[in-house]
Amino acid sequence: MALMKILRPLDVTAAAGGVAASVAPAEELAAATTGGSEKPLTRPEGGYIVAMAGLLVVGAIIGIVIDKKSNVYNPPDGVSIFAVLFIVAQTLERLLEPIASLYGTTKADPAKKPDGPSGVSLPSGRVSKSQAVKARDQALALCLASSDAANAEKGAKAAAWSQELVDQIRRNTATIWALASFLGMIAAGWFGLLLLHAVNAPRTPRWLDIIITGIAIGGGSKPLHDLIQNIQASKEQKQNPSEATT
Questions:
Q1: Is 85 part of a structural domain of the chain?
Q2: When you count CB atoms within 10 A of the terminal residue's CB, does the N or C end of the chain come out lower?
Q3: Does 161 map to a domain?
Q4: Is the pLDDT of residue 45 over 90?
């Protein structure tokens, strides 16, 4: 979020006397373009990467161990294996929705926390997205409304710092697909949902099919929906008669 795009010299009319006052010149707010939190990183934080890798490995092991080897789900006539995978992906998405709001956090380093403006309390410790967004909005509102240049500058700095935490939390939360893939691999092994076997992929070992199917489920319903559409379009194109030539 580029805060400096909306932070500009403002004329704020005092509520009581109606006197216009010049507030927070752009050069005074130049130092507030970054919050100084040293975030966001270009990737999720280390703990989330480790958790993501662990979930994928453990999910693959469980899915392969509980696989009944000979069990392959064959949908009834008129039902595609993709429809079943789509339903599983949709179900996991709905189950993980309330967890997502609690899953992503980041640590607010007290040594890098700016002095907040009066009336704004900046969070400390492990910060959730809702906490960071609340602090950002409060600081930004105070910055835009304050008639005191020093307080407005503090508000801009605090808003930028909070936004950096929000951006990092978004990167951390993006790893939740690994949890969906973890559950997807277990479902693939237990129910015999094998995506590559369903499309007759040659020489595909079951263990690899379980992993790929679980990751496909974890990727969400939209990629599966797009895959189904592409396969259906390709199938229909093959069934259509070729154009007559003269």
A1: yes
A2: C
A3: no
A4: yes
* Of 80, 84, 97, 77, residue with least CA distance to 188: 84
2-10: long-range pairs with CB below 8 Å, 24+: 3/32, 3/33, 3/140, 3/156, 3/159, 3/160, 3/163, 4/29, 4/30, 4/32, 4/33, 6/144, 7/32, 7/143, 7/144, 7/156, 10/144
The two three-digit tokens of residue 176, written as one number: 């939740």
Q: What is the pLDDT of residues 56-95, one digit of tens each?
A: 999 999 999 999 887 887 777 766 777 788 888 888 888 8
Q: Are 168 and 45 in contact (CB under 8 A)?
A: yes
- Measured CA to CA, the distance from residue 120 to residue 86 in angstroms comes to 45
Within a domain: residue 19?
no
Q: Say if 94 falls within a structural domain.
A: yes
Number of domains in the chain: 1
Give the pLDDT of residue 232. 58
Note if the pTM is more than 0.90: no
